[in-house]
Amino acid sequence: MTKYSKQTRLLVAVDCIIFGFDGESLKLLLIQRGFEPEKNKWSLMGGFVEPNETPEEAAARVLKQLTGLENVYMEQMEVFGEPNRDPIERTISIAYYALIDIRKYKDQLSKEYRAEWMPLKEIPKLIFDHNSMVEHAKKKLRYKAALHPILFELLPEKFTIPQILTLYEGVYDIVLDKRNFNRKLLSTGLLVRQKDKDKENSKKGAFYYKLNKETYKDKISSFLNFIPNP
């Protein structure tokens, strides 16, 4: 097989920024790196792209190895290619972010990688340029969530409006006007109110809602404008 002459070979990796929501706070899934360099340091979950797979397939494989999950909302974010980002070999990383409902899948995490959910506001120093990846992912998520209802991917099948408010405030790190947010949210037609209430978090109780999946499919490409000046 003919090869390009006089060209240096590069490694291509994928790294997954996995966001999760447990009903109270937005979190990030991290692992403790099991080999040198930076052994036992906190890291994003990643791996090298195999010769017979696309970057998307590699990211899906990495996600399944860590969480046991398939068909999770995942989107390619950015390419990180500083020449010295990996001290061992020249490695270009394609970063993806994924959205997971923690409570639904917390028991499926692989023990092999010593994975742990950490509050987004409390993440430690990560290896290489992984902190920079997380910051880029946060900006991407904020921008995308202002245009599309993707944050519903983080919610359980039944949820309350206060939970949605908490989620949006966590993503944008702001305090939203409750009445204005509720009004805009209910006007989208995305929610179907249920008969039962969540009475654990308030005496009065908050009605549960489910996502109107047909409306969601229509609105996924529509501007929602939940957040002022995203």
Describe this structure in words.
There is one protein chain. The chain has helices at residues 55-67, 102-105, 130-147, 161-172, 178-187, 213-219, and strands at 11-21, 26-32, 42-43, 45-48, 73-80, 91-101, 116-119, 159-160, 191-198, 206-211. By secondary structure, the chain is α+β, with helices and mostly antiparallel strands. It has two domains: 11-133, Nucleoside Triphosphate Pyrophosphohydrolase; 150-219, Winged helix-like DNA-binding domain superfamily/Winged helix DNA-binding domain (Arc Repressor Mutant, subunit A). The strands form two sheets. Strands 1, 2, 3, 4, 5, 6 and 7 form a seven-stranded mixed beta sheet that branches. A three-stranded antiparallel beta sheet has the order 8-10-9. The N and C termini lie far apart (50 Å).
**Largest sheet descriptor:** 7 strands, mixed
User: What's the CATH class of the largest domain, please?
Assistant: Alpha Beta
CATH topology heading of the largest domain: Nucleoside Triphosphate Pyrophosphohydrolase
Residues in β-strands, percent: 25-35%
Radius of gyration: 20 Å
Q: CATH superfamily membership of the largest domain, which one?
A: Nucleoside Triphosphate Pyrophosphohydrolase
Q: How many DSSP helices?
A: 6
Coarse shape: elongated
Contiguous runs where pLDDT drops below 50 for at least 5 residues: none
Mean pLDDT: 88
Q: How helix-rich are the residues, as a percent range?
A: 25-40%
Kindly, what is the distance between the CA atoms of the first and last residues, rounded to a whole number of angstroms? 50 Å
Order of helices and strands: EEEEHEEHEHEHHEEH
Structural class: alpha+beta
Task: Please state the second-level CATH architecture of the largest domain.
Answer: Alpha-Beta Complex
Count structural domains: 2
Number of strands: 10
Protein name: NUDIX domain-containing protein
Organism: Olivibacter oleidegradans
Domain Nudix hydrolase: 9-141
Pfam families: NUDIX, WHD_NrtR
